[in-house]
């Protein structure tokens, strides 16, 4: 099954690239995976991740030093084959995929001498005479938002793996584990090394759940565990999942707020269909957060009054979501044409990463949140003296940190496909 999907994926990519060859009057496009980079004045390298435009072509992780050459005939993979007794050579992966490629092992850059005349280059600079062709990059980034069935299958698998980790993380938390122990439980269940996760795991217990990109992992077991926020994914052939779950242990006001947020999240997901404006969905989420603040006695202002004063943004300061794919924040989210017209995020929601209308087979995240962030609460008091919020109630909620619920969604014309909820429901 995967072989057939991969073959069709390749056809789609070749079609897209051949349109680009015509558009830019080119004979070939060379895409570099990239080379190893090193810590400053050190002989240890950073973990390697291939440039996504090169990775997109292969059903395995592309190694450093490889190149993809797209021409009008059979595409070519230049495979790094430098002899070096310190390291094990990367073996060329076996499989059906090989039938579609000309595979050239190379121990130098000599292969570039047989390139045709009009060549454009994509990727980090690694060949002396080439630098990235920016308008070609922009052109190809636009198409990347629409995923092929193979890409959706990869994202589905990345999602399935991540849900195993979330399940294990929640179990560890309920047994009193520290953030570090929860993180290790996640890695073990997903069989990932920390350098293989698509982004550093966010594992926040209690107040740490209010730190949007919290990456420290305390080794101290919590004295009084209240909340666990885990934002963590997995990778499959380079494709990333990006999932957040917020877990509570008590049956209290905060747990009711988490439940309210879960209902809001699912309501927003249900509207993520072809033609919907994502900016509009973001506004609806802000209104939904205002409703939750009001219903849970956190802010007595009406939804309308809160929206005028931008109260929800003090509790939900980030965007509703983003495109998902080979990059966690996948390319082209604000790009409205292949030529590169950009529609920026609205002034009052500057962190929204997706302004493009939703289209069939886009894959996106939907990730509303509600946090008690001391810095933003101070800002609210300074900027909106008539904020209408019950500061005592907020004080009592500060130890819980906050809530984020994040699912990975495939856009369709009628009913969106929620990869994350599908995977969670298949656990056990
Ligand atoms: N994990 C990063 C994000 O949710 O966008
Ligand atoms: Mn996330
Ligand atoms: Mn995300």
From TrEMBL:
One of its GO terms (biological process) is proteolysis. InterPro entries: Creatin/AminoP/Spt16_N (IPR029149), Creatinase/aminopeptidase-like (IPR036005), PepQ_N (IPR048819), Pept_M24 (IPR000994), Peptidase_M24B_aminopep-P_CS (IPR001131), X-Pro_dipept-like (IPR052433), X_Pro_dipept (IPR022846). Mn(2+) 2 binds at residues 231, 242, 406. Its EC number is 3.4.13.9. SUPFAM superfamilies: Creatinase/aminopeptidase. The keyword Hydrolase applies. It catalyses: Xaa-L-Pro dipeptide + H2O = an L-alpha-amino acid + L-proline. PROSITE patterns: PROLINE_PEPTIDASE. This is Xaa-Pro dipeptidase. It comes from Marinomonas communis.
